[in-house]
Amino acid sequence: MRINVYNNESEVLNGLANYFVETAAKSIAHHGQFSVALSGGNSPKKLYELLASSSYRDKVEWNKVHFFFGDERYVPHTDPQSNYLMAKKALLEPLDLSYKQIFPIDTSLSPEEAAKKYTTDINYYFAGTDVCFDLILLGLGDNSHTASLFPHTPVLHDKTVSVKEVFLEDQQVFRITMTAPLINQAHHIAYLVYGDGKATAVHHVIEDKIDIENYPAQLIKPQNGDLQWFLDKGAASQLKNR
């Protein structure tokens, strides 16, 4: 695990954008394509807008990139809460990508069916080989959740390399998420976290004793891949060892 700490929001976004570009180039050089699972939320939206900007859009062979989603809210793709819609507006449409490069979660199905179909879609993409995304982007919630691996949910104990539906009792909503074993097979995993409000969660996940029920992001430990945290000083402020 490597922890990268930057002075401010702008620097951390550029740091991860550069990492994205470098990882994409290496993957494309190695096997001709780049598979990435996107995260949702406000923080990655700014990253996606940066990648689609004039500063970065010419640095990636976008026609060789395939986009998946680490998790999704169980809402229509037209809903403002949709991770797919956010990524579409911030990154996918500005880059004018082919629909064949984009793999959204089908939320028109039931939660269970949507999860099963996405598992099938992912396995089909990897054509019978191990499911190893080149890069999975993750965020971190104030409650130490990542993707839709929320505290005290059954999916935290799921050992399958798959996608599962998750019901959040406190919100009375469903989410669809990659399981921790699937995420942990990735070649590269990168957290994007910034702001003082995330400092406690960052400390819990990185430095506290293992307690996945309360700090689900502790589940993310790549089997053979590279795990990097991209933090600003605010998010890293409670870390004792940087």
Walk me through what this model shows.
The chain is of the alpha/beta class. The protein has a single domain, classed as 3-Layer(aba) Sandwich (Rossmann fold), CATH 3.40.50. Helices cover 29% and strands 19% of the residues. It has helices at 9-31, 42-51, 83-92, 111-125, 180-183, 199-207, and strands at residues 2-6, 34-38, 65-69, 71-73, 135-138, 163-168, 173-178, 188-193, 226-232. The strands form two sheets. A six-stranded parallel beta sheet has the order 1-9-8-5-2-3, covered by helices on one side. Strand 6 and strand 7 (173-178) form a beta hairpin. The N and C termini lie close together (11 Å).
- Main structural class: alpha/beta
Order of helices and strands: EHEHEEHHEEEHEHE
Radius of gyration: 17 Å
Q: What's the overall average pLDDT, rounded?
A: 96
**What is the count of structural domains?**
1
Quote the beta fraction: 15-25%
What overall geometry do the principal axes of the alpha carbons give? globular
CA-to-CA gap between the ends? 11 Å
Q: Please report the number of helical segments.
A: 6
Query: Main β-sheet, in a few words?
Result: 6 strands, parallel
Instruction: Report the count of strand segments.
Output: 9
Low-confidence stretches: none
Q: Briefly, what CATH class?
A: Alpha Beta
By CATH, the topology is Rossmann fold
What is the CATH architecture descriptor? 3-Layer(aba) Sandwich
Q: In percent, how helical is the residue content?
A: 25-40%
